[in-house]
Every structure is written in C-alpha cells, then in structure tokens.
C-alpha cells in the first residue's frame, strides 16, 4: 500500500501469527505483507475477530510474529529482545486506546509528561513546556491541570493523543479510538489524526466507522487474518 511518493516506513513481509488453541494452532494473521509510508493515514477495518488488533500489536512490537518479518524505520522489530522492544516502542510508537487509559490520579499534563519521564528523550526542564505545546496542538491546553475525570470523552481522547505524541514517535496507532465517542466528537478526532498525518506522522487507525472514507484514502480490509483489499479509493 506504499504510494509512489513515500518510502515504506513500515514493511511487513509474510507475517503469520498463530495462537495455541484446543484444536491445534489458530492463525490470527495469515501471510500478511504490506508497506506503509511516512505520513500515511491508514484505516484498518474488518469484522470482529478478523485480526485487526493482532496486526496493530505486531506493528507496535507488542506481539511477535510466528513467521515473517517486521521492519519499521529500518529496524527489524521482530528481532528485538523484550528489553530492546520496550525502549524502541517508547520512542517509535504512540498508542491511543478506545477507553483513553489516562491515569486517573494524575492531572492531564502529568499524564502527558509520564512517557517523557520513561523515555528520557527530552531534558527534564523542557518536559512541562513540551506537554503544554502538545495540549495546545490538540486544543485542550486550558485543561492541563485538571484530573481526567473532569474532562469530556472527546477531551480525554485528545489528552490521550497528546500523550501518544509525547516522545515524538514517527508512528501513531489507535485501536477503535472513537468507539466510545459520539459521531460529532469522532469526526473531530479523525480530523486530528488527518492533521497529524499532514505533519508527517504515520497514523494507523482500527475503526468500524462506516464513514471513514471521508478521512482515509488508504484502507486495509482484513478477513479471517488475511488482507482482502489493501486499497479502496474514497
Ligand atoms: N492471545 C490470544 N490467544 C489466542 N487467540 C487470540 C489471542 N489474541 C487474539 N486471538 C484470536 O485471534 C483472532 C483475531 O483477534 P483480534 O483481536 O486481532 O481481532 P479483531 O479484528 O481486532 O477483533 P475485534 O474487532 O473484536 O477487536 C480472534 O479469533 C481471537 O480470538
């Protein structure tokens, strides 16, 4: 799915993922190959159980492929050890979840600064200002010192997106990020992802939303662990 103008930032070659099951091995992904370029905004869609989250987990280095290769930004992710993976993931992958998963006892800005403290990419005395810039980028700077529970669902998801950007990763992955939001708020979140892609982030979003075609030029359709339609023009 790599377009002519972009080099592949993400390349999966013949990836299979098997899980043990009562009746032998179950293949959640079957011989999946794909290329995704820098700054691409990609939707992953398909029925429940088709393998969407497994694909995201493989790209994020959360799961290892049973067979095949995963290369991201020139790094063979499938070859990294668990400790190397944790460091690599912190710098290269920002993750956005359906239920936001902000830490409830930390303020919004503290939630954004936490991954910076883990990763050490930015000096300690610059982290608060960077978090404020990110909150500005997602339009909730004025919520910085509140607890997540004081924010609306859409504002919490904006905070989660700012957190995903904390260490300036090239790749943002989001697993049904609007599954818990109304359609107007969902549209605003999709707009935000589109803006991130315009600023050269590669954004991969698992979504069931029927109207995603307005936002996503590139759509990966998965059925029974295989890509059945990699590119659907809007
Ligand atoms: N850790 C695991 N152990 C065993 N089977 C698993 C595991 N993770 C996923 N599976 C199976 O792999 C298949 C694909 O799961 P996956 O979560 O990737 O689907 P999905 O398309 O994301 O589904 P949904 O839309 O419901 O979230 C399913 O049949 C699931 O039961």
UniProtKB/TrEMBL annotation:
Keyword annotations for this protein, in alphabetical order, are:
ATP-binding, Nucleotide-binding, Transport
Database matches in InterPro entries: AAA+_ATPase (IPR003593), ABC_transporter-like_ATP-bd (IPR003439), ABC_transporter-like_CS (IPR017871), ABC_transpr_LolD-like (IPR015854), MacB-like_ATP-bd (IPR017911), P-loop_NTPase (IPR027417)
Q: Does the keyword Metal-binding apply?
A: no
A Pfam match is ABC_tran
Q: Name one GO molecular function term.
A: ATP hydrolysis activity
Which GO CC annotations does the UniProt entry carry? membrane protein complex; plasma membrane
Q: Give the top-rank taxon of the lineage listed in the UniProt record for this protein.
A: Bacteria
ABC transporter domain boundaries: 10-232
The UniProt entry's sequence similarity note says: Belongs to the ABC transporter superfamily. Macrolide exporter (TC 3.A.1.122) family.
Q: What is this protein called?
A: Putative ABC transport system ATP-binding protein
